[in-house]
Amino acid sequence: MNKKLFISPITIRSLFRKTPTKTYDIITSGAYKTNNLPRIVPKEIPRPNHIYNLVNGPYQSSILIKNQWQLEGIRAACRRARTIIDTVSESIQVGITTDTIDKLVHELCISLGCYPAPLNYEDFPRSCCTSVNNMALHGIPDGRPLKANDILKLDVSVYYNGFFGDVSETYLIPAVDKTKTPVDNDASYLIKHARRCRDRAIAACRPGIEFSTIGRICEEYIKQCNGLKLVKSACGHGLGEQLHEPPQVLHYYDPSEKQMKWIMEEGMVFAIEPVITEGNGRVKMCDDNIQVCTTDNSRCAQFEHTIAITSNGHEILTEGKTDMRPNVLERKAVFV
């Protein structure tokens, strides 16, 4: 019997895709001014343990399997993170600065009773991460106005009533006049497949599955996408009472990593957040020792969900818009 050769539709479309040309701004650390005004959090909003340098002390949680009370606490934090990122996304447009976006995130956190988790975490000076174009991770909000076809990665994490929620999205900044500035198809391609990569990895998560499955799926999917690479140093993580808990979730397969041989069980909570780039997949630390950019200045996209393993599958804790709404007057005050 003759065997028919099967080629994935993704691979076929990728074969006819041209190599992207650099028509975007390359972002460098310190090139744009950052507002030095401190972000103030009211005293009544609880601070996470890392603010008091207790991350490695007696308050460090090492519980992998969450009970119902813990799950509900994480769920509440994730709902707020989702509300914030959905609300802020409505204001993302040409001309807005990432510092203004950060101010929006900060004020929304306060209005929902949350502490913005990035603020003062390992010297990070702002309330969210805004990584533009070639900035892969931990982008510091600054005064640069966004331009049409910029790629913005917005990462929002919050601390609410003792628990963390973590979510990120990538946005292609729309042009004011698309007849003059057409949509960047290469950027759209990158963003589309970064989202699909995350979603395919999540779809496999359920009790009894080895954590290495996440990395296998991400690698296999991106190999079908012409010109795209995984940034291997960008890992997912467990979370709950701390922002980063075991296990470390690799988005590629590494048989030598012991945690990747762990088996998923009901009650585990972790974030899946692969970073995909148009370039070689290598990154470096910027001069500020905080931001991370690609070595070849290629653009990146990232999507993140926090999920919980259930008895028969998984629950995406950061999925979809919620019916929570922040105080309208407080949101208006952000623009003053």
Automatic annotation (TrEMBL):
Magnesium among keywords: no
UniProt xrefs under SUPFAM superfamilies: Creatinase/aminopeptidase
Textual note on the cofactor: Binds 2 divalent metal cations per subunit. Has a high-affinity and a low affinity metal-binding site. The true nature of the physiological cofactor is under debate. The enzyme is active with cobalt, zinc, manganese or divalent iron ions. Most likely, methionine aminopeptidases function as mononuclear Fe(2+)-metalloproteases under physiological conditions, and the catalytically relevant metal-binding site has been assigned to the histidine-containing high-affinity site.
GO molecular function, one term: metalloaminopeptidase activity
Binding residue positions for substrate: 138, 244
The organism's place on the tree of life at top rank: Eukaryota
Catalysis: reaction(s): Release of N-terminal amino acids, preferentially methionine, from peptides and arylamides
GO biological process, one term: proteolysis
Family as reported in the entry's similarity comment: Belongs to the peptidase M24A family. Methionine aminopeptidase type 1 subfamily.
Protein name in the entry: Methionine aminopeptidase
Lineage of the organism: Eukaryota, Metazoa, Spiralia, Gnathifera, Rotifera
